[in-house]
Amino acid sequence: MSRRDGLIAHRARDALHAVIDPEREQDVVSLGMIQGLTVEDGRVRFALEVSPQEGARREPLREACEAAIAKLPGVRSVAGVLTAHSDRPAPAARAPAPGGGQARAHSHAPGHAHAHGPAQPAKAVLPGVKTVVAVASGKGGVGKSTIAANLAVGLGRLGRKVGLLDADIYGPSVPRMLGLTGRPQTKDGRTIIPMPAHGIQCMSIGFMIEEDRPVIWRGPMVMGALGQLLTDVEWGELDVLVVDMPPGTGDAQLTLAQKVPLTGAVIVSTPQDIALIDARRGLAMFRQTHVPVFGIVENMSTYICPECGHEAHIFGHGGARETAAELGCDFLGEVPLDLAIRETSDAGLPIVATHPDSVQAEALMQIAMRVAAQLDQAAGVAGRAPPRIVVQ
């Protein structure tokens, strides 16, 4: 943190001492409600922690905190996230003091954050979005985001209206893969407009942070950010929203599986046993949350030497197909380990868009067509209520 940002952080904390929680009649700092306050180049971020029972009714308090910080010299923008901690006891409600922390702040940046209450009915979460498909993996490093980006663009090439949500908070790579830079716009200071690229719409936390800056957030802050990326974005009318899920099967993945009306999921794995073990966990997570698994994709399946044409199976071959058969789900296809896919992804030019006649693009388009067929079959149940976790 620069010296200037450090001074802003100090002033911000002082300003928050003046924001009184009307229900407990103390300031939010003394109550320990302010967490994760950071300043980067004059951009202030923080989380306001409350109990789950309090929910969205604490939104005016969060807005009052933002308003107090926004008045400080040197502050370029403020983004506050309302988060819930189950170990914070719910306070006894009192009548709010006149004007006590109830000021409403205007938005200060496209990334303006605000709270969301309990899970909403499926159609209210993403109005206008007909189907949602999650692209997931049990572990990182298997090329999940590459598959997600090309799948989204591929579905667009099939005539669908497509959105791509980069929900990988800790490693947002979709902006680079689609060649997107800058910050998204907003019409009203609260709703974010997704950014267009290659015929689809995209939203990512990567638009809000520097590419080489790590996201060092606690779980509640991640949950708040994911909620905003879903409900504070003007997706409009979409045939399908592709969600590039975070790797693994932790809190973020479970929250998305429950909060989002998922039509189905695609599991990405490489052929080797260690990756397939994690892929099984990912598949099991979706089944336990009653989300249909459309199938498994085997990425980095085969390497063909560009000089001599020799075919090599660096990570093995056929493991994902065998796992799909064993677990009773479809095998969606193989994607080769290929230099062209890597180069086009790094350049922000998805291979299905820029080299549609290549062998590599054909493999990815076959997967897109199989997913499209499954989405069409499942469209009749896309508006069901969010699933519940079943413990067996």
Structure description:
A hairpin with a 2-residue loop joins strand 8 and strand 9 (200-204). Helix content is 33%, strand content 19%. It is elongated, with a radius of gyration of 22 Å. It is of the alpha/beta class and 392 residues long. The chain starts with a helix and ends in a 14-residue tail after the last helix. The chain has helices spanning 3-16, 59-70, 122-125, 144-157, 174-178, 219-231, 251-259, 273-288, 319-327, 339-346, 351-354, 359-378; strands spanning 20-21, 26-27, 34-40, 43-50, 77-84, 129-136, 162-166, 195-197, 200-204, 238-244, 264-269, 293-298, 303-304, 311-312, 331-334.
In short:
The chain is of the alpha/beta class and 392 residues long.
